Sequence to fold (311 residues):
Amino acid sequence: MLRKTILYLSDQPKIFRFVKRNRLARGLARRFVAGETIDEAIEAVRQLNATGATASLDVLGESVYEEHEAQATVEQYLMLLDRIHAERLNSHVSLKLTALGLDVRKELCISNLSRIVERAALQDTFVRIDMEGSDYTEVTLEIFEQYMRPSFPGNVGIVLQSALRRTSQDVENAIRSGARVRLCKGAYKEPASIAYPDKSDVDEAYVRQMKRLLEMGNYPGLATHDETIITEARKFIAEKGISPDKFEFQMLHGIRRDLQEQLVRDGMNLRVYVPFGTQWYPYLMRRLAERPANLAFMTGSIVREIVRGKR
Ligand code: FDA
Fold:
């Protein structure tokens, strides 16, 4: 129930305007977000690379309804790719199709995405299309499969969410086509008709799909901080003789740094998703929904600040 409420609030711009003014909320966002500028994001990648981890940079922002906003996002991604290339950093980019104008016009989004993927291909790097809520699953897979992968098979990949009932079939399709998949549990509020309501079912589906991708997939990205699942993955590759360079673990900036360091020390490939920008509210709220203890901390801080302000 609490998770559903937080995810509902993540979609409320008025609340963002209120929260954005709060110093402590901004402070908490800083735990999950590398900063508001490209320079801050690049610095975060430099630090990760120095520790042996790679990165995927995400310009925060989603649900854009104006063409000019989508164009601005494209320019930011092109600038970002140029910086990554010029500074020889080991980083991909991740993006959301709604930030590129999917809600304005599908053709606009395809053309915007093509510009970014073409630049990535020229620089021999990689674009990951994040997966958003289930209203976008089908169209995201369609844009990926029909418009991007045929021309740039090595430069673009997709995300599948184990929470969705359809995902086992999508995993098989990806194995058949050779698509590169990031597997995650899924961060959005979804109806029980299409998603597993129980976390244990999501976890079980994740493990099943992860094993299929490890055995048959094309360099899968296992995006999770779940220690039990990570242990299971490592046990599985040892049993099957799968080399650790055939896949990577992926985690979010600011979450389980101890585990991130451990994986790198153990010789595993680790990519850290590094979001940055001013539109951090929906991203922060999804991170709070995953761990409501974070919310209790933030609410307490905001209330204390309001009370102090009134004195
Ligand atoms: P789970 O939620 O079971 O958490 C396992 C443990 O991780 C917790 O016990 C805690 O220790 C730690 N943890 C997890 N979340 C935390 C938090 N917010 N704060 C503090 N600790 C936390 N989703 C999506 O729908 N589309 C996408 O494109 C992506 N992309 C993506 C990329 C990468 C690199 C990652 C790691 C995740 C995503 N996700 C995503 C988010 C994903 O779907 C999921 O919501 C989170 O990863 C949390 O799930 P876990 O697998 O970590 O397990």
